[in-house]
Design a protein that fits this description.
OB fold (Dihydrolipoamide Acetyltransferase, E2P)
Length: about 180
């Protein structure tokens, strides 16, 4: 009889090729599913805004409230706005807009100011910001207290020719040459 010792290593049977494909498919579905859960809402919001900008109806809105959300997109603030939409047909209503605005363009948005928006006619609460309506300031009228400038006389002669430029001062070397 032989003494019990270590048993010889037995090789496992090869994995069927279909099982490898199934494992890779499950791994791919898991990774894609996690990505869809994490990035899906951001992609969906961008797609919804794109669709409203492309297919929505134009309207003018009054900016009622504007606040910084403290979030940033490419160093630009993301602001939340409450606007009163004035559609061409129908009664005015309020809507919310959350969108990034560049630091340069932010100065064009003022509470009480007008903005251009587009809205989804099927769901008017879905609103996308197009841009501000910039009102050009009218020129200020001339003050009434100041006298008007006197008109120039009609028969004045042409201005005199300018006087010739003075001769340059002699340099120290030129002074020493003079007797």
């Amino acid at each position: 009889m032989t003494a019990p010792g270590p048993t010889p290593r037995q090789d496992l049977p090869p994995t069927p090729p279909g099982l490898k494909r199934l494992g890779l498919g499950i791994l791919f579905a898991f990774v894609f599913g996690v990505f869809a859960l994490l990035a899906g809402p951001f992609i969906l919001d961008g797609w919804r805004e794109y669709q409203i900008l492309e297919n929505g109806e134009d309207a003018v809105a009054t900016l009622l409230v504007m606040r910084d959300t403290k979030d940033r997109a490419n160093d630009n603030p993301i602001v939340a706005m409450t606007v009163e939409v004035h559609p061409e047909e129908g009664k005015p209503y309020r809507a919310q807009i959350v969108t990034p605005i560049s630091m340069v363009a932010l100065q064009n948005y003022r509470v009480g100011g007008q903005v251009r928006i587009r809205f989804d006619p099927k769901d008017p609460t879905q609103v996308a910001l197009v841009g501000p309506i910039i009102e050009r300031p009218e020129p200020a009228p001339a003050p009434a207290n100041t006298p008007a400038a006197a008109p120039a006389p009609a028969n004045t002669a042409a201005p005199a020719e300018p006087a010739p430029a003075p001769a340059p001062a002699p340099t120290p070397a030129e002074k020493s040459e003079t007797p």
